[in-house]
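Here's a chain:
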Amino acid sequence: MSTNQSLFMDFLILGLTDVPNTKILLFIALLLLYVLTLLGNTAIIVVIQLDNNLNTPMYFFLENLSFLDICYTSTTMPKMLEMLLVDHRALSFLACAVQMYFFVAFVGTECVLLGVMSYDRFLAICHPLRYTTFMSRKVFIGLAGMSWFCGFINSLVHSAFTFRLHFCRSNRISYYFCDIPPLLVLSCDDTSINETLLLTIGVFIGWTPFLYIILSYIYIIVTILKIRNITGRQKSFSTCISHLIVVILYYGSAIFSYVRPVSTYSMDKDKLISVLYSIVTPMLNPIIYTLKNQDVKKAIRRRMSLRKT
């Protein structure tokens, strides 16, 4: 197949299911999850913007995280809902490339951002007296910017190497959106370079932040256990446990989806795993942060009380 043929080919997204009755139930469930994701993450952004008490690096990063969740669920969910409702599965080559680029960019950005958030918690708990020095406004804005830069550069590399391939085996993507693994399966070219890129860049974007987070939390837990004041200990745990829950859910599914050889891919199983980090986690983030974080709950109560007066 020539390059031109590949460029003008429409892909057919097979989606999560073909069973008519299941499609209706799945549409309702996914629509509810999407609405909750949009409302929950938007609410966090609004509360942080309006409440001066949340004008700290920790909540600046949380605001970035919520915006990311809105962005990358919105790259896949509208098309997924359309496929379930009207069974329109076709996606142009260009639309597929754009969808994959932004999805991978947002996922990569979140991987780095979660590592940055753990660094912030490490400084705040383990080095509280030097926290404001190490985490100045210039530093935390720079760290957030670095996260976005790494995510988008990572996606640019993967997108360029993925869409230089010829997709001559089939145009049927056994997945619910355009992603790197299902596209590599369709290629008749040698994908060894793509696999090497996934594994090597995955070490820096995925494994390095994840291992740093684990190491940071070992130090954080040791430090918290040394706190004699029970109230102070509980407050420290409440600000960290939410982040740790997100990390376990997110990295566990994301690393499994990307950082492994193509020969081990199983699209039917992989798309169920990817649902965790692409659909479930963005919806859970606002719930986890509001239920486990006393400062956010107090800020929400303040906003509600102001509306009543």
